[in-house]
Amino acid sequence: MGDQLDGASAAFHGFDAAQDIILQMELREEASTVPQNKRRIAFFFSAMRHFRDEQRALGRQVWYTELDDPENRQSFPAELQRRFDQARPDGEIIVLEPGDYRVRAALEALDLPIRFIEDDHFLCSRSEFQALIAANPTMILETFYRAMRRKLNVLMEGEEPVGGQWNFDRDNRKSFGRKGPPLMIPPPRFPADDTTRAVLDLVERSFPDNPGSLQDFAIPVTRAQALQSLDDFVRHRLPDFGRFQDAMAGGQAFLFHSVLSGPLNLHLLRPLEVLRAVLANPSNAPLNAVEGFVRQLIGWREFVRGIYWHLMPDYAARNAMGATLPMPRFYWTGDTDMRCLHEAIGHTIDHAYAHHIERLMVLGEFALLLGVRPYDVHRWHMSMFWDAIDWVSLPNTLGMSQHGDGGVMGTKPYAASGAYIDRMSDHCGRCRYHPGKSLGEDACPFTTLYWDFLARHRRKLSRNPRMRGPYQNLMRKPAKDVLAIRRRATALRKELTRETFLREPDQA
Ligand code: SF4
Q1: Which PANTHER family match (predicted)?
Q2: Which residues line ligand 1 (CB under 6 A)?
Q3: pTM across the whole model
Q4: Strand 114-117 to 93-96 pairing
Q5: Each residue's pLDDT tens digit, 77-112
Q6: In the prediction, which pLDDT does 506 show?
Q7: What are the structural domains, with CATH classification, of the chain?
Q8: Do 325 and 371 form a contact (C-beta atoms < 8 A)?
């Protein structure tokens, strides 16, 4: 699979170069239901072709179906069947378990001798996660994270966490203030070689109307480049990663983030080697930065994957907030006068990337407040981000950002008014709206929709102890103001979702 580019993975144990064949396929299937970001498609195909060439250089036989091969049947099951009929192998087809439940189900439905191998690119196996959740059915991320810290003996002093506390979130919520971000060394760039240039031509030719731009394509597409990116992060950006992990700034897509999720999710890097590089800490980063990163890597990332396999396939259909609207068209174009969304969507279109707080508290949050169907948010996320794989995208969007799972990924919805974005960014000062206003011509749509969200879901959320503060604030508002806010929110909802790019959901 395009997200399994590791020639040393468990699928290759016992590989016999004299008779075994590696099969790789570029397929239209995924790119056709939702308009995919060109950069995302190019990243996958370029990384796949580089992997093919590396494996061939090792003397391994690779059968590779290119996208525009006239014989290409353009879907996993159909193309696998065609290649199987060509090869007529004596043995079996070995598949590292896919990161997408639907792909696995489609392969299982084939009448072919397929053997699935457990993916060894995670620090918590599926069976280990099952055992943990069987022992504690309401396990939350924090409990899981502590168990992983103990198991891996990471940042521990005996039974206690290094520094006397398990997290340093309070130190990790700084904004850049008036001065803006301090001096940063941006992530390294890897100019396109001949292989990548051929892919860029192919993508431009095959998907001319898709969103995104292939200008300045400089993403790591090989393991060597991914390792260089890792080294660069731990040397240059890790020290400030912690305190500024929730901060946003106009024109800055990467800030102090590692930008390693793409290489990790395509298996160009292994989580254990990333963990070791961060713990080696060559830049003497403070504990809040190291712990903040470790939490994402061994806590959040592994938890998300465990939840995905534990709750699929029903998980994809969850919609705890009863959202009914489609994804607005401007999520593919950035054509909005809301400065924060324009910035975050711009980063998404230009880089197939936005950092986690833009995804959660701008892109995701606005869809939540608006009332977009959570599975649609997931489909958009899958189509636009270079690092999105089903196992990570679904719990992250449907669960965490849309609260569609009713509290599995987060114990309360990630909902806030425009004041949060104003505190954490420099966007509001350059916006036609006012973050503090919920009514009037210049009222911030986030703020209007936030109060409307609380009012609409009062019955579901007001008894949640973590929502007590927001509901006390809502109660202080005069009833006539709440009514006017709800009227304005209804008009906004209608206006903003009039146009969409998505067809009706076909999978949930
Ligand atoms: Fe976003 Fe509202 Fe701030 Fe404008 S005022 S940037 S819409 S939060």
Answers
A1: SLR1343 PROTEIN
A2: 338-340, 418, 421-422, 427-428, 431, 433, 435, 444-446
A3: 0.94
A4: parallel
A5: 899 999 999 999 888 999 999 999 998 999 999 999
A6: 45
A7: 10-117 (3.40.50.620), 126-187+237-311 (1.25.40.80), 330-496 (1.10.579.10)
A8: yes
